[in-house]
Structure formats: structure tokens, C-alpha cells
């Protein structure tokens, strides 16, 4: 049961969390955990989960565009996130209060305005939080309706992006008691505009015949040379807008029962991904690249207290629809080899894209008991049920590749294609997974100083899918149907021993196991050489060993340290790919291990002056992983920096009796990392290291807060991953116009102001 918002941070700076589904001091939880309170989120200027986690070392993004990708904890994340299209599990579990809402490959842009806190639980959380928490769990704990008082807040923000447009956001909250101390309604609304800074460069693509033979069609057809000519440029093309709201109604008829019904709705319209060169320009072949993201969540939580504990029912339904057009310019030269000779040169291939639609609908139900026994033993136990339906459609209406007449001839004149390229690719997949689980976790105070924790979770996960596909590229001129089934039965244990010699020091050792469900390769039919044996892939497993110490000292002083070792097996990686990366086979290939240390400290030097820092140091290795047909014997886990760190200086001071000033400086460093596993025609590249600095200052006057800020003050280039790079093994890579490396990248410098009022 989540603790009330007022209990999140006590007057002696003790932070209360519900990491084990019971209210505890963060210093008493026997795992490494980072907590960002409501005040810390506001001080850092966080707007969503992504911006909130920038100051947490060892938590890294694998993202190409807001709303996509994955997040890694201690180097563990979904691999090949751009290929999984919502059809696999996640490595990090995401929760809003008690509601899970993860979608593989699409990390959501969840707003954190009016959040009581953000919890980052490091290491496998398979006992309490279940499948999908292989590397850890991230929880947004919202402020609950308060039937005791009327409250409200409004916040506005504006920021100018270097070489780009203008950011903006407006957030609001109102809390209304409907029946004094019995019924309350809390409503939150948010709107955010993220300005673009990358200029989209279009090009005219032409082709001319070269002597025979054609490398694709054979000796009877001429070779084709593709020629790129710069055409038009659209400035600041990677902007995005998002908006939505959250409402919660709480009914507390007596001291022992509470019902909370809530709804969350959001919508995002996103332009081109944050992809380009260091100069902020990038080439896209299709003018239709973009993404819309609609999200709905409905929840009902019932809590019944008894003298010996609390019974809780959490019922949740969420659905998400993503429509995304993805640029595929890397396939244009290859496609010209086919399209130009087939059309006799009449049609020149102008662009390449895929249109993707993902629909996810999920109902989940959890029943949980959290004890309040008298004596040394406490228990958390329950059951979980999930029913998830996923629909995915991918179309490749090339511009054009194959004339409609030729496509109809290839399929025997029966398909009825009318538009050029309409027969190139169309695949539709529907899948269903049903999971049941039972879990229990108990603690026993062996002595006043020693506590033993032991728990386990059992899963049964059944899956089935069906695909209808046609693809001239892959030799499927007629629509064909394919189906598959899969099942996992998993037992996840957890055990820890905690020693607390006094109230300021504790130490622990722990073992836990995590699980990420297996699945089906619904698009294996688009991959040359793939067979039905490639349809099924198994679940990933992670065994984690951890030892840590947590200390408190002085006024608000804290130092926590943890060492960890992860043994990761049955890695889910892309082992085969279709032409141009469209269609893939995910298989279990090899294993990995990582070990390192997490350090987290804060100290109040004097009244109002607080220093904070955290760092994660990791050594990681893949072992005998086969990706796209290549054996990788020794390499770092992709996207994982060996060293990440962040630190902040926070200072508050009185200006007058009614005015309180504040200032904050924060710095974040990410070491270099590998961009990804080997893929066809693309080598493994190294992402450069970077360091960013943010500055904020302002004042509070009564219920009003005024702030000015500069993010990424030094205008440091922030490379998140490498899209395409030329080198010795891939001389044709990079931007086709300039040859420069193309990066997915973070924002340049932003200078802005924020104003808020609370009552």
C-alpha cells in the first residue's frame, strides 16, 4: 500500500518509500534504491520520467526518439530496441502507483508533475514486481486526493533552444474535498511543447544504368548507380507536442476501507527523430516521417485494513496506440537495383519508408496482503493475472519500388494492387499473452540487529500469435498466414540478510533472480533463410548478487554503497535480418556478465547548503553472442558506459522575511559506450563520452515560485547512439549527402524561465 504523500519525507529528512509494497525508510530497504522526492523533481526542472532520470547515475537511455527505446539499469536493457516493435517484454518494469504499463521498445513520456516521488529500484525485482523487471523497476508514485483541504497548483515554462525553436509547458492541479474527510477528487492537466533543433534535409534521388551484371538481378540486368542531390531543408523538424491529464477519486467511508478510482489520458504528436550530424542537420528520404502516441489507463484500487494487515486489490486496464512512419533511406540504393531495371528506367526510386501501427490492450489484476503482525515476522503475499493483446502492422509503400502492374503479375494477377509499391510489403500480426503468478516475501527479525528476507514468485506465461504477410521483397507475392505458440514457467527466488548495528548504519547481502518473457518472431517470414524453427525464442534470465552498506550522519548526511554482480543468460538478440532491417529473427544467443559499484551520497554542509552526488562504475562483457550471423566473443554490453556520475549543489537562503532565494548547479557525465550489436552492413561504433552542466536560480514569495535556468550550459553535443557511420568496413555509411556520422542526440543548450503558484 502506498504511503500518503505527506509521509514521503519526515521532518528529520527521512525519506519513506514503498519499494517492498510496505512503507519503509529508504535506508531500511535492503537493495540499492534512488528516490527523487517531489521537491527534488521540482528543483531539477523534471517534466517527465526521462528528464527526471538524467541525474541518476547508472540509469541510461536506449532511445531514438521520445516515446521509443528502452532504459537500462546497471547496463541491463532490451537489446536491439528498434527491432522489437512492442512484441517482447521489457528489462525494466514501469509503474504508475500500482499499475504496470511497460511496452517493449517504446519507453513512454510519462509526466511527473504532481508526483509525490520517483523510485528507482536497482537489480531484479522479480519477486514483488514480476516479469519485465529483469534489471530493476521504476515507479512514479502520485499524490493522492486529500479530503481534508482544497489545494491547487499551476506552472508555466518557456525555453529557447540553441539553433532551434521554443520549448513550452503548462501544468495544473486542483484537489477538491467533496465530502469532508470522506471523498476527494484530484485532477491534473499537462501540456508540453518540445522544440526541434535538427534541420531535415531532403534530396532528389536519381539513378543511371551501368554495365551488366546487376548484383541483385543477375548477369542479364544492368547495374544501377544511385545519385543523391540536395533538395530542400526544413528547419527544426524534430519538434513534438504532448498533452493529457490525470484524475483520481478517493472514497474513505471509514478508517479501515478506501477506494481510489483513477484515469490517465495522454497524446503525443512527434516529428522527425532526433537524428542528425553534429551540426544539427540530417538527411531523411521520406517526408512522412513522424509518430503519434495515444495512451489510456484506468485503475481501481481497493484497500481493506485489519488489525493484522492490509488487503489490497489493484485492477488496471491500459491501451496504447502508436502510429509511426520510419525512414529507410539505407535501402534505397539496394531497391534501385531492383526497381529501375524492372521498370525499364521509367520509375526512379525516390524514397523508402515503413508505416508501423502498434496497438496494445492489457488488463491486469493483483490481489495482495501486507501484514502488520505483532512480533518478528512480516509477510507480503498475493497473486497476479494479466491478459495482453498486441496488434502490429508494418507496410512498406515504397516511393515507388515496384509498379502495381508488375506486382500483380508476380502474384498471378490476383492481388489487385493499384498503387506503385503497394505490393512490396504488408504484414499484420495479432498476439495474445496470458500470465498468472503467485508470490510471497517474508521478513524475520532473527535478532534485534539481524533481519532475514526470503521470497519467491512463480509465473506461467502462455502466448500465441498469427501473422498475415505479403512481401515481394521476401518472395511472398501472395498473402500467407503463419501462427505460433509459446509458454514459460519460471520460479524467481530472492533472499537477503540485513545487519543493523545501530540506527545510523546498516549492511546487507542479497541474491535475486529476474525474468524477461520469451516470445515469437512474427515477422520471420520476411527474412531470407529463416525457417519455422526460428519462430520461438526463450525467456531471458538474470541472477544478481549484491552487497551494500547504508549510513546516516550529521544533519541530513547520507552515504550508501553497493557492489553487484549480474549473470545474464539467454540474451534476446537479432540473429537474422530481412532486407534493409525490415523483418527480423530474435533468438537466444550467448550470455553476458557485468559487475560494478553504485555510490550515492548527500550532505548538508550548512543550513540551506546541500551537496549530493552519485556514480555507477561498471565492467560488462558479452560472451559468445551471435548477432546477424556474426560471432561476438568479447565486447561491452551495447549502450553501457563504464562510468556515469552526477552531482548537484543546492543552496537556499532568506532574502527577506517573505522571500526565499535558491540556486542549483548540477553536472552529469556519461562515459563512452558501444552503439549496438553487429547488424548487416553496420559495424559496432563507439558513442563518445559527454558532460553537461545545468544552472538554476530563483526565489519563492509565499505560494509563488520564480525561476530562470540554463540547461546544457556549455552547449555540449549529447550523442545517445549512432545511426549510421562510415569506416573501413562500411565506407558507404553516414549521411548520403555529406558522408558524416549520423547520431541520435540530446538537446543543445536551453535558456528559459519557469513560474508556478501553489495554494
CATH third-tier fold name: Maltoporin, Chain A
- The overall pLDDT average reads 85
Q: Return the CATH architecture.
A: Beta Barrel
The geometry reads as: globular
Residues in helix, %: under 10%
Unreliable sequence segments: 1-12, 727-731
| Count of the separate structural domains | 1
| CATH domain class name | Mainly Beta
Instruction: From the alpha carbons, calculate the radius of gyration and give it in angstroms.
Output: 27 Å
Strand content: over 45%
Q: Mind summarizing the main beta sheet?
A: 22 strands, antiparallel, barrel
Number of strands: 44
* Cα end-to-end separation: 27 Å
Structural class: mainly beta
Helix count from the secondary structure assignment:
4
Work out the oligomeric state of the chains in this entry: single chain
User: In CATH, what is the homologous superfamily?
Assistant: TonB-dependent receptor, beta-barrel domain
Verbal overview:
- There is one protein chain.
- The protein is globular and about 85 Å long.
- It has a single domain, classed as TonB-dependent receptor, beta-barrel domain (Maltoporin, Chain A, Beta Barrel), CATH 2.40.170.
- Strand 33 (591-606) and strand 34 (609-627) form a beta hairpin.
- The two termini are 27 Å apart.
- The strands form nine sheets. It has a 22-stranded antiparallel beta barrel. A five-stranded mixed sheet has the order 3-8-9-6-7.
- By secondary structure, it is mainly beta.
- The longest helix has 11 residues, at 332-342.
- Residues 1-12 and 727-731 have low confidence and may be disordered.
